[in-house]
From TrEMBL:
<dbReference type="GO" id="GO:0004834">
    <property type="term" value="F:tryptophan synthase activity"/>
</dbReference>
<dbReference type="Pfam" id="PF00291">
    <property type="entry name" value="PALP"/>
</dbReference>
<dbReference type="InterPro" id="IPR001926">
    <property type="entry name" value="TrpB-like_PALP"/>
</dbReference>
<dbReference type="InterPro" id="IPR023026">
    <property type="entry name" value="Trp_synth_beta/beta-like"/>
</dbReference>
<comment type="pathway">
    <text>Amino-acid biosynthesis; L-tryptophan biosynthesis; L-tryptophan from chorismate: step 5/5.</text>
</comment>
<dbReference type="InterPro" id="IPR006653">
    <property type="entry name" value="Trp_synth_b_CS"/>
</dbReference>
<keyword id="KW-0663">Pyridoxal phosphate</keyword>
<feature type="domain" description="Tryptophan synthase beta chain-like PALP">
    <location>
        <begin position="62"/>
        <end position="386"/>
    </location>
</feature>
<dbReference type="InterPro" id="IPR006654">
    <property type="entry name" value="Trp_synth_beta"/>
</dbReference>
<comment type="similarity">
    <text>Belongs to the TrpB family.</text>
</comment>
<keyword id="KW-0028">Amino-acid biosynthesis</keyword>
<keyword id="KW-0057">Aromatic amino acid biosynthesis</keyword>
<keyword id="KW-0822">Tryptophan biosynthesis</keyword>
<comment type="subunit">
    <text>Tetramer of two alpha and two beta chains.</text>
</comment>
<comment type="function">
    <text>The beta subunit is responsible for the synthesis of L-tryptophan from indole and L-serine.</text>
</comment>
<protein>
    <recommendedName>
        <fullName>Tryptophan synthase beta chain</fullName>
        <ecNumber>4.2.1.20</ecNumber>
    </recommendedName>
</protein>
<dbReference type="InterPro" id="IPR036052">
    <property type="entry name" value="TrpB-like_PALP_sf"/>
</dbReference>
Amino acid sequence: MTAILKGYALPDDKGYFGEYGGSFIPETLQAIMNDITMAYEDIRKDPAFHRELAYLYKHFVGRPSPIFHAANLSRKTGGAQIYLKREDLNHTGAHKINHCLGEALLAKKMGKKKIIAETGAGQHGVALATAAVLVGLECDIYMGEVDIAKEHPNVVRMKILGANLIPVSRGTRTLKDAVDAAFEAYLEDPVTQLYAIGSVVGPHPFPMMVRDFQQIVGVEAREQFQDMTGGLPDNLVACVGGGSNAIGLFTAFLEDESVEIYGVEPAGRSLEKGDHAATLTLGKPGVLHGFKSYLLQDEEGDPLPVYSVASGLDYPGVGPQHSLLKDLGRVQYVTAGDKDAMDAFFTLSRTEGIIPALESAHALAFAMKKAAELDVSRTILVNLSGRGDKDIDFVVEKYGKIYGI
Ligand SMILES: *Cc1c(COP(=O)(O)O)cnc(C)c1O
């Protein structure tokens, strides 16, 4: 196990987590990525940067986010005790503000004028637009038209915050197409802009950098959980889109062999019919958006169309460190479908008075199933990655009748 544990400090200096990650991009862009890596290595060692970020986490985001013992929900499942790490209580409503502030500060330190990004559910767009205002940068956000229609409140928020919202009408008009469009815009001027990637994906150094900024979730949770219960959780559960909230929670616990770790991918409408985004469950290694990882792809290696009721999980790739953690067997990747997630969404709302993001509802769905199989003395810590306010119109329109609204 020790040899494997050493791997958790990855990536290597070329950005590889085992065989995954790296940087598969044109030479001109590689020079820019090298600059970003160097700038990041500098600020990573700079106590002033960490002080500034810690100040913003505390006074702007509202960190530390609490851990809540969901006693009503636990009683309802009849098994293990479910605890929630409340990233939904962060300013802007999800974990994404943790890495957006880090990326915005980095851009500012590098003398960039603008940060650009893609967004799926709109959470990354809102978090980045917020960080851009605070730090004093312009902000361009690319978003698929399907997601724009579905995530109206976040679209309005980005506009109020002064970001330029650029609709993407190609392909399936969802997250992958938005990434493609944002990437192309970035290539046109990588000198005055910084592409602030929204998860632990993309070429080196982004999977490392975004993980480092998200680690705060697990670092806090480990200490808080011990304060509350006197021990470590028996199980960790987080949903996996690109994988940032999951790696943020998992990192602090990877060397705790007693802790079982689960990443939950979206099974969408059907795993059999290809109507999902369960990359680690059904994909194979390939290259997309400048990095190597598990990928849902056709025979030519082109990404397959993906689907989930949760726009933020709708991505055919996954962070390279998750691919390694899967191969090592340290994290088990499982799935929850649309129906399970919708049930979990309403169950949490109606047992604890907490409306979760549809993304987080996937983690909850698995946690509830797992809890029911375990003794009441066992514990499960779930990363409640975001709040569901952004989803309520969609949920009521599509599922309201089923749930008596
Ligand atoms: C974006 C998002 C996710 C998925 O992204 P990861 O990088 O996998 O964490 C999950 N939950 C919420 C609330 C999100 O906004």
